[in-house]
Amino acid sequence: MDKSFQINKGVNKPMEFKGFQAQYIVYLGIGMLLDLALFTCLYFVGIPILINAGSCLMIFFGLYQKVFNLNKTYGQHGMMKKLASKQIPRAIKIRDRNYIKSLKSKSISND
């Protein structure tokens, strides 16, 4: 009996769509929805369609370029790592020596 198994390739690869990876696809999608909402609002206000469409296309092109540059600069997890690194304190200030002594005595008693 010859058994054959299906191999699922690319299971742990990041999601990618036309060069955009991971969360940048979501950023672009949200930006497109906001741009569509802006187009709709400007249309109902009464702005001429050519001016409305031209301005929304320029906004979308700027959004596309910005998200693409973020994707190219930071990659899949780089932007999250950069935002997380800003939350790490540069130094920890301890003004009481007794705290350090208690840590040292606890580590000695645990050994």
Essential attributes:
two-stranded antiparallel sheet, mainly alpha, 111 residues, 64% helix, 4 helices
Structure description:
- A hairpin with a 2-residue loop joins strand 1 (16-17) and strand 2.
- The chain has four helices and two strands.
- The chain has one domain.
- The chain has a two-stranded antiparallel ribbon.
- It is mainly α and 111 residues long.
- It is flat, with a radius of gyration of 26 Å.
- This is DUF4133 domain-containing protein.
- Keywords: Membrane, Transmembrane, Transmembrane helix.
- InterPro entries: DUF4133.
Topology:
Elements: E1 16-17, E2 20-21, H1 23-45, H2 49-74, H3 78-85, H4 97-110
Antiparallel strand pairs: 1-2
Helix pairs in contact: 1-2
Summarize the structure.
This protein is flat. The protein is built from four helices and two strands; from the N terminus they run E-E-H-H-H-H.
Mind describing the biggest β-sheet?
2 strands, antiparallel
* Helix content bin: 55-70%
Estimated radius of gyration = 26 Å
Structural class: mainly alpha
Low-confidence stretches: none
